Amino acid sequence: MTADLLAAPRSPRSATQRRRGNLEKWGWIYMRASGVLLIVLIFGHLFVNLMVGEGIRGIDFAFVAGKFATPFWQWWDVAMLWLALIHGTNGMRTIVNDYVANETTRKVLVYGLWASAAFLILLGTLVVFTFDPCLGLSSTSADWLQELCA
After folding, report:
1. Of 6, 90, 134, 137, which residue is 20 to 30 A from 105 by alpha carbon distance?
2. Alpha helix (H) ranges present in the chain?
3. Domain of 92: which CATH number?
4. Where would you find the membrane-spanning parts of this chain (predicted)?
């Protein structure tokens, strides 16, 4: 019975198997490379937010507005967002591929994962690059915000 399910070790692979194998190889390489980059990005993010300046007490709206006013920190956070979401989605795709036997269900789940990741990447990128602390500024806003937006 198992002989019918497993291909012979030296049998040629079909085009679909070759494509998926190549996708799996690049997914594996991406997971390793993005993992290393994420370690640098996340620990840099944590160091700047928690160790520099006032530490955790200094994190407020003004701190975030100041960081998002600098292109360096915008790109740092966007790179962290993109890498983390794609890394996590690729990991979930691997789990779905391993545990979901039904091909239709597997495809629906994988497409759903990638669609939600794409939506979150788009939304997060828009938030980072269009962040405006002066949007909706009222006369009752804090003094520092009034000065920042003047």
Report:
1. 6
2. 2-5, 15-50, 61-68, 71-99, 103-130, 143-149
3. 1.20.1300.10
4. 29-52, 72-96, 108-131
